[in-house]
């Protein structure tokens, strides 16, 4: 399949590489052009701008940071919309706002092309190994067109509903992560302050109803007070912003997500934005007097 791929960051570079290795004919573009080199060395074609990557492609994948960045690469000068073929499919795998997604899809449809929102969960490891969970919004027949490509990238591909539904599902995902990580931090700090054997307690919790991916894989970060990536605090705060906006417009209070978003704002201001999101435990540890907040 002829594919255009725009955005070669942590996620996009690994995903584009999988498509090249699977034998697709991939034209890649990244704002910082040097990042195209490892992909061209693997067999991709470098495109001078997003429009050039889209020209001749039946599917164009976009994987950039946030809503304004998607707008820029799709509708900006030399953007995807200037090069996309009639009837081609744009698959936006970035995590962006559901409402804006619906507007983008309409603007692309006015140019004769189709849109799927297909944000992912599963992190950089999932991108590398092709084990992402992909949450898809859009028409079912468009998903079927994209499926052979998505199956190279993910192991769980779920059609959630019409355009924007994939992004809404991703917002749900990030709200659940906020609550889980906050509770994991509070539980562990309670044990640390009591002076019990927290590693033993974590093994016990993992085997019971409190067992979860966050507890098992990120609990040890909280104990050690060390938060290697993972998923960046600053990206999670961006995603909670999307969820909080959606909650406001739908009339859904999200008090836990709002609190965690505020903690993350403080962490970013203090230079922790590029740590793993489990670093929200820093706030819980400091409030309990375990650590010096100035440290
Ligand atoms: P990243 O490493 O920060 O890469 C961001 C990419 O977007 C880069 O290619 C960057 O280009 C490009 N970009 C940003 N603004 C742009 C603009 N105005 N014009 C053109 N290109 C622009 O981010 P990532 O971790 O790959 O994440 C990409 C998306 O996946 C985000 O929406 C994120 O929330 C989501 N996601 C990430 C993870 C994860 O674990 N990292 C997991 C699930 C979902 P430059 O190279 O020029 O900066």
Rounded to an integer, what's the Rg over CA atoms?
Answer: 20 Å
CATH class membership of the largest domain: Alpha Beta
Question: What is the CATH architecture descriptor of the largest domain?
Answer: 3-Layer(aba) Sandwich
Domain count: the total is 2
Roughly how many Å apart are the termini?
Answer: 52 Å
Strand order of the largest sheet: 3-2-1-4-5-6
Spans of at least 5 consecutive residues whose pLDDT stays below 50 are none
Mean residue pLDDT: 97
Q: Can you tell me the CATH superfamily of the largest domain?
A: NAD(P)-binding Rossmann-like Domain
Total strand segments: 9
Give the structural class: alpha/beta
Would you give the CATH topology of the largest domain? Answer: Rossmann fold
Ligands, ions, cofactors: NADP nicotinamide-adenine-dinucleotide phosphate
| Total of helices | 14
Characterize the largest beta sheet: strand count, sense, and whether it forms a barrel.
6 strands, parallel
Order of helices and strands: EHEHEHEHHEHEEHEHEHHHHHH
Instruction: Give the overall form.
Output: elongated
Task: Itemize the secondary structure elements and their pairings.
Blueprint: E1 2-6, H1 10-21, E2 25-29, H2 37-42, E3 45-46, H3 50-54, E4 59-62, H4 67-75, H5 80-83, E5 89-92, H6 98-109, E6 114-117, E7 120-121, H7 123-129, E8 132-137, H8 140-153, E9 154-161, H9 165-194, H10 198-206, H11 213-224, H12 233-250, H13 255-269, H14 281-287
Parallel strand pairs: 1-2, 1-4, 2-3, 4-5, 5-6, 8-9
Antiparallel strand pairs: 7-8
Helix pairs in contact: 1-7, 9-11, 9-12, 9-13, 9-14, 10-11, 12-13
NADP nicotinamide-adenine-dinucleotide phosphate binds at residues 7-12, 30-32, 35, 63-65, 69, 72-73, 94-95, 120-121, 123-124, 231, 235.
């Amino acid at each position: 399949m002829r594919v255009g791929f725009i955005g070669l960051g942590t996620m996009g570079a690994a995903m584009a590489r999988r498509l090249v290795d699977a034998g697709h004919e991939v034209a890649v573009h990244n704002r910082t052009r040097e990042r195209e080199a490892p992909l061209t060395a693997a067999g991709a074609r470098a495109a001078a701008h997003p429009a050039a990557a889209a020209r001749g492609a039946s599917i164009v994948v976009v994987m950039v940071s946030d809503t304004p960045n998607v707008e820029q690469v799709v509708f900006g000068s030399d953007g995807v919309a200037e090069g996309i073929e009639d009837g081609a499919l744009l698959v936006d795998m970035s995590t962006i706002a559901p409402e804006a997604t619906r507007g983008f899809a309409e603007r692309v449809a006015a140019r004769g092309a189709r849109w799927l929102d297909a944000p992912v969960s599963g992190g950089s490891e999932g991108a590398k190994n092709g084990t992402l969970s992909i949450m898809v919004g859009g028409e079912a027949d468009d998903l079927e067109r994209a499926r052979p490509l998505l199956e190279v990238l993910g192991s769980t591909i779920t059609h959630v509903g019409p355009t924007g539904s994939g992004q809404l599902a991703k917002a749900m995902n990030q709200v659940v992560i906020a609550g889980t990580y906050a509770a994991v931090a509070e539980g562990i700090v309670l044990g640390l302050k009591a002076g019990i054997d927290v590693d033993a307690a974590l093994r016990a919790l993992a085997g019971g109803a409190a067992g979860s991916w966050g507890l098992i894989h990120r609990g040890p970060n909280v104990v050690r007070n060390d938060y290697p990536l993972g998923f960046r605090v600053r990206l999670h705060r961006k995603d909670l912003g999307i969820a909080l906006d959606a909650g406001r417009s739908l009339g859904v209070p999200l008090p836990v997500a709002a609190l965690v978003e505020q903690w993350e704002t403080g962490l970013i201001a203090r230079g922790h934005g590029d740590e793993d999101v489990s670093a929200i435990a820093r706030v819980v540890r400091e409030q309990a007097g375990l650590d010096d907040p100035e440290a």
